[in-house]
Amino acid sequence: MPDEKKSPTLAVREYRDSDRDAVWALWRESGVMADPERAGQDLEFCRASADNTLFVGLQDRRIVATIMAGLDGHRGWFHYVAVDPDNHGTGLGRHMVAHAEKWLAGRGAVKVELMISQTNHAVLRFYENLGYGPEPRVVMTRDIGS
After folding, report:
1. pTM of the shown model
2. 125 phi/psi in degrees, rounded to 5
3. How far is residue 68's CA from residue 79's CA, in Å, rounded to a whole number?
């Protein structure tokens, strides 16, 4: 990308309980956490399953990016993909996606699925630039939890 800022060094590791406050702050600031209660439930589910993980990206020991990756037995899924707004356009998101893709492939995933709002043009462009594209499918949901 011609207007991309220089990518700073990024260390990626799995989430630790001590990361919670920094992750919550990043999720709020980046807009990926609409409902803190739901985010807490998602994180607990992720931490309890060997088929899910949350990666954090660090610069100078500060969490600046996250990506939650999960495997449904065939496909991989991403959730809570967040980059500190001051670091948008630096390649951190691309780095986090590549890291999560490698993790999923190592567990047998054959593809990655994403659900993105049709009106979220910036995120759609981000994934299109990474080689993702739409499939002719309809996503249907029904809330079954309390």
Report:
1. 0.89
2. -65, -40
3. 5
